[in-house]
Amino acid sequence: MELGFLIGSVVKIGAILAYLYGLLWVLGHKKLWVKIVGVVAAFAIVQLAFTITIGDSTILNEFDSGLVFQAASMTMIALGLNLIYGFNGQFSLGQWGFYGIGAYTAADITFRWINGDSRGLLVVGIGSILGAVMILGIQKWLSRLRGVPVLSAFTFYLFGSVLVGAVAVVIGNALNPAISPLLGSAYEPGPLSQGIWLQIVYFLAIIFAGVFAGEVSFLFGLPVLSLGSDYFGIATLGFTIIVNTLMLNSDTILPFPEMKGGRGMIGIPKLTTWFWAFFFMLMVIIIMRNVIHSSTGRTILAVREDETAAKAMGIDLASTKLLTFVIGSFFAGIGGGVYAHYIGFLSPGTFDFLAGFNPLIIVVFGGLGSMTGTIAASFGWIFFLEGLLRVLLGQMGPDAPTWRFVLYPIVLLLLMLIRPQGLLGTVEWGFLKAPFVRPRENQHTASDVVEG
Amino acid sequence: MQNTLVEQNSPPVDLKPRMSLAWVGKAFLIALSLLIVYLLGTNLAKNPSLFANIILSGLQMGFVYAMIALGYTMVYGIVKLINFAHGDVFMVGAFVSYYLVYRFNFQNWPALFFPDMPPMVVVVIGTISVIIIAMIVCVLLATTIERVAYKPLRNAPRIAALITAIGVSFFLEFFGALNFVFSPRFIPYTRPFEVVAWYIDGSGIHSIVAGTQPPANAITFSNIFLIIMIVSILVQIFLQFLVKQTKMGIAMRAVSYDKPTARLMGINVDQVISFTFAIGAAFAGLGGVLYAIAYSSINTQMGILPGLKAFVAAVLGGIGSIPGAFVGALIMGQAEALTMGFISTPMRDAVAFAILIIVLLVRPTGIFGEPENEKA
Q: The complex's ipTM?
């Protein structure tokens, strides 16, 4: 049985890699109708595998479909980290904290919504929009005054966000009585808390969670990104630990009794279907690819390669790093929202800083600066560690869960010793390859353009 | 024509700041520090003896962190690697001493050979030998880790070494948590000697008789506190001496300055790096034993947070600097104890990291940190 299971798992991982390759290939096709048909087909294949029954279970059984959802959210988180670390060279350990922020924010919005309280959506939504306006406004104002120290700018943003938060809470509290009668309660859902409306709220919740995580990362990154690489890493590790501490005390120090602190938040509506997971994953992949292969992306890469040279070319180092950090955290927030609504239960233990090394490991495994590598490594890693090892070692008695983490570092060590640049290096597949730019007439360095 | 138009429309470029807003950031920092001073001051006025006791417990924690922070700061200073496995070496030191004391009753070995020896001397020699064996085991472990995991990656990208360090750390924690190794439980630690505590009140120093409570507003301390303080300060002095005065110390500073040049000068760089790992591990083992004696509960995960905080302390003090690690560790200990005493226990990690972030904003290379490539 064990041998059969092993072969089955290897086949499964191979099938998933082939699937990803096909998805990326079809996305990179020239004709638009091929793209659309291909994406719909890619969605349908997995959806059918979830539903078609062979024998006594579906093709992808309950356990495997759980892994698919986990891998989809991990893809978003790891892509964000790859943008920050792989493409921009900022060693960040804070991705897990932003993931947690996104998960808790999105979960809180929909949890409150189905329990007849619209304040979650109103406060976070208004706060995110006003916060974005505030940040852009202050940025514009400060850009006129030259030589404003980072700390002063940070103070302005901090007070601005406190103000925005207060305004959002006031407006949310004022509007809530008008909306909440339409929501009903958890037992008798009102017209707005079911069907299409709930799906819209779910979509908004995840987008706002991402935006909120991005804004927090802006506030945090503004002062901290000016530190050197390793110092930045430790500061972001501190951020993850601070976020985790706040989660553990969300019902005592923070005013969110529904998050239940260390006991974990239960009763989150399980709204993540394969459609939404696929949609958000595709969205993140497309945004990421288009950012990397744009002029902004080349700026980001230039900052990684040589800061001094980039500065000499007129690139604003601080704002490039900040932009990268915000986009990466936005992805993490979206991944968190998707995860929270798949699993239906959030516990601070999930967002422990030790688990926060996982996205880093995935990014390094797949190859720093390779989007394909990150996507493949996310799926491969989840299916290897959570699927294969968990089941294989499951029969080993009471020590089984520990053995998994004894074998895993050994695999890690071997991989680092054999292939320190990651599995795929900087190879990209299909869609994620740099688009071919037709060289201009008197330009002899076409290869530079193609390599991006 | 066009040139004059452009000149009229765009004002001359003014490279000086039009309005200096530096005061905003400074005012923010000053307000923050005033708030902290106010919080501490009111608590000091409310209950001075409680405040003093909390300061003492913070010092005890800080001295333990200082011993771990040394290893981090020296290794980072030389190979620029955050050695995440260091905290687990600390854990192994505590477990070795636990087995020596609890299973083998090793602290009584002098009494077996010299029955006439006074019990006080037996305990002192026994405890010292327990500590030395724990340190030796830690040194062997750390040099093995260095040889197996870090040395092959010396020329690889730095991230590969970092991931390897995380892997080694996971391996030690979870291998230790297997039931036939250390088991994942929290284990009550048996001390090799008795705790003696004293209290200070208006009329001088009195020893606390077992089973009684000291008076309400007295400052208490124990022999464990004294031992940790003395050992930690001695370790600092020893390392200062080692780095500043000995040939090995000069070699270490040279390697941290410029590896290729040091190699050209005839320094065996690999040997120096191994030596740095070894000496850091020795003091981590020492710290582990003292930590276990002080807090009397050990677990395979016990090294993670103290290790991390010791690293933060090293960064706070300026990484690569030995006195910096000491001062940073004392600050971390105080921050933790004061947060536990006056704000709330679960917030202690958050406050420790918040302090790190604030200090790094004001002094990006830490309190004692020199701009570049400086050591000790």
A: 0.84
A387, A63 in Cβ contact below 8 A? yes
Q: What is the CB-side half-sphere exposure of residue A436 using CA atoms within 13 A?
A: 5
Residue identified by tokens 């935006």 is A211
What separation, in Å, do the N-terminal and C-terminal C-alpha atoms of chain A show?
49
Burial string for B304-320 (b: 16+ CB within 10 Å, else e) reads: bebbbbbbbbbbbbbbb
B278 domain residue, yes or no: yes
Tokens of B376: 């000790």
Residues 6 or more apart whose Cβ sits within 8 Å of residue A316: none
Does A368 have pLDDT greater than 90? Answer: no
Q: Does B130 fall in a domain?
A: yes
Q: Give the pLDDT confidence score for residue B11 in this predicted structure.
A: 56
Six-digit token string for B197? 């505590």
SS3 A332: helix
- Cβ–Cβ gap A152/B24 under 8 Å: yes
Q: Is the pLDDT confidence value at A280 over 50?
A: yes
| pLDDT surpassing 80 at residue B130 | yes
SS3 A319: helix
DSSP designation for A359:
H
A415 CA: distance to closest CA in chain B (Å): 9
Structure-token pair, residue A323: 């932009």
Chain B residue nearest residue A412, CA to CA = B167
Residue A48 pLDDT grade (very low, low, confident, very high; cuts 50, 70, 90): confident
Residue A95, φ and ψ in degrees, nearest 5: -60, -35
Domains of chain A: 60-117+183-433 (1.10.3470)
Residue B181 phi, psi dihedral angles, 5° rounding: -100, -90
For the segment A37-44, the average pLDDT, to the nearest whole number, is 91
State which residue of chain A sits closest to B169, comparing Cα positions: A409
In angstroms, the CA B287 to CA B113 distance is: 29
Nearest to B54 by CA among B335, B329, B293: B335
pTM over 0.95: no
Pairing of strands A53-54, A57-58: antiparallel
In contact, B322 and B236? CB cutoff 8 Å: yes
Decide if B146 contacts B281 (C-beta within 8 A): no
- The answer to whether residue B219 is domain-embedded is no
DSSP codes of every residue in B158-179:
HHHHHHHHHHHHHHHHHHHTST
The one-letter amino acid at B51: F
Cβ contact (<8 Å) for B168 and A413?
yes
Element (H, E) at B200: strand B197-201
User: Residue B220: is its pLDDT beyond 70?
Assistant: yes
Query: What's the full length of chain B, in residues?
Result: 376
Residues forming beta bridges with residue A54, ordered by sequence position: A57
Chain A neighbors of B170, CB-CB under 8 A: 354, 405, 408-409, 412
Q: Helix or strand or coil: residue A368?
A: coil
Please report residues of B whose CB lies closer than 8 A to that of A249: 344, 346-347
Q: Which of B355, B314, B318 is nearest to B334 (CA)?
A: B355
CB A225 within 8 A of CB A321: yes
Confidence grade of residue B375 (pLDDT, cut at 50, 70, 90): very low
Give the count of domains, chain B. Answer: 1
Q: Is residue B298 part of a domain?
A: yes
Per the structure, the complete domain to which residue B124 belongs is given by: 58-195+270-362
